[in-house]
């Protein structure tokens, strides 16, 4: 058994009962060694079904020959190979675009309870740390590549992250393996290649253990980030009480528990919460949070982020994205009020109880609406919404049911959503 086999099996211990292992197989040194090691280990150990996935980016002519090379090795090892061709979007960073396309392909291949195995090694981890350090990354970024993480419906694992490249190369030569040398890896106009070919040789001559030390620092940062995540979960728990308008089905937090925290803990908690919804701003662009937090109670401030907006309304902050940032389309005729009505871009609305006589239609606020409220007479809708503290961003989306020119009901608002005698109630399930 190779001296790489024992640490590899240990790293893969949590995944021994997975439904399948897929190796991200570029044909390069690291993925070739990983695939060969696993193919050898399955002869003496009970492992999940093993396959390989080669992503063809089509970015250079030389790459057209790589699927055949990968197929030949997989045939020799009796490992099934899937070749996935992807289109790389043009943009400022071809490296990032290629990586995004590659991982989209991996997500599509890796199903629930399956694992994608990649061959990144210790030198890659050191490069990642230095690259992110030069970009001003925080603790999370300086944790570099995680050993494992969720990926789509499955998981991603990097079992060789503690192994130096020189050890992988020694194994490959001892086993007479051949691998692909990507010509683009020598182009030092790519930032990572510049670090690999121009910076790391100098560092290693002065500090021979530089890569090992950097990888160790990345592990320390990853551990520190884990502690920050635990602190964020505690702080968010205190701010996660269900509010009056939980039926909006929007992510929201109570503001007061956040404001009681130090500024650093506020940012830490919000980073943790927002990471599920949007790419996060860098340190220089957190002034938007300060402005939203410190605004007057009646100011209805908004912080615009990459994938949506954070709104402050009442005593809470709310995350809005997608259709919530667009005006709903109306009016919508309701020909069959005995059935729920799908509202374009705005969920569904339906009656509970008896059905009011028609003809009915659903519309949205335009301003100046008046509603008859029995003993209270005719009341301005704006005032009624103010009395109930309806968040400003939700007012233009509340379904209003009309019969001819008469406003019959406003969905989901007690006292406004039902007939005077309570024979029916208008319920809205937002998008």
Automatic annotation (TrEMBL):
The N-terminal region contains the highly conserved SGGXDS motif, predicted to be a P-loop motif involved in ATP binding. It catalyses: cytidine(34) in tRNA(Ile2) + L-lysine + ATP = lysidine(34) in tRNA(Ile2) + AMP + diphosphate + H(+). Its main location: cytoplasm. It is found in: Cytoplasm. InterPro entries: Lysidine-tRNA-synth_C, Rossmann-like_a/b/a_fold, TilS/TtcA_N, tRNA_Ile_lys_synt, tRNA_Ile_lys_synt_N, tRNA_Ile_lys_synt_subst-bd. It comes from Pseudomonas deceptionensis. Ligates lysine onto the cytidine present at position 34 of the AUA codon-specific tRNA(Ile) that contains the anticodon CAU, in an ATP-dependent manner. Cytidine is converted to lysidine, thus changing the amino acid specificity of the tRNA from methionine to isoleucine. Gene3D superfamilies: 1.20.59.20, HUPs. GO terms for molecular function: ATP binding; tRNA(Ile)-lysidine synthase activity. Residues 360-428 form the Lysidine-tRNA(Ile) synthetase C-terminal domain. Keywords: ATP-binding, Cytoplasm, Ligase, Nucleotide-binding, tRNA processing. Its EC number is 6.3.4.19. It is an enzyme of class 6 (ligase). PANTHER family: TRNA(ILE)-LYSIDINE SYNTHASE-RELATED. GO terms for biological process: tRNA modification. ATP binds at residues 26-31. This is tRNA(Ile)-lysidine synthase. It holds the Pfam family ATP_bind_3. The lineage of its organism: Bacteria, Pseudomonadati, Pseudomonadota, Gammaproteobacteria, Pseudomonadales. Belongs to the tRNA(Ile)-lysidine synthase family.
